[in-house]
Amino acid sequence: MRKFALIAVFALTACAEPATDETMVEEEVAAEEPAPEPAEEVAMAVDGMPMAGTFEITNADGETYTQVVNEDGTYTNTMADGSVVDGMWSSESPDQWCGALEGEGVECSTEMVDENGVWTSTSNDDPEDVTTIVRLDG
What b/e readout covers 49-85, taking b as 16+ CB neighbours within 10 angstroms? Predict the structure, then answer.
């Protein structure tokens, strides 16, 4: 029985086609294909979560409004009286926020979360202009 098994193995080996230059080239080409592009990087906020989200903002004057920040670089402020103001935002790092409401210039601020977990945003132009931010989602 062993002889039969060995003969069968030799017969199968003899029937197998040797690798040709063509099949080897195809294998090499497949191995050289570039890796897929990485996913677009998500802008992160100072709280360690994505910049996009819904937030309660309390400005330096004590006025509170809701801000919805979208991944596409837009945001919407809904004021306490129900009025809505749209804007554009950008961020080079989690602790920096730049925004421009429609018809206004760009204003940037530095953000931080203190040891008590309070998130604040301080205007780069006016250090007395400090807002408090609370994430409402996530």
Answer: eebbbebeeeeeeeeebebbbeeeeebebeeeeeeee
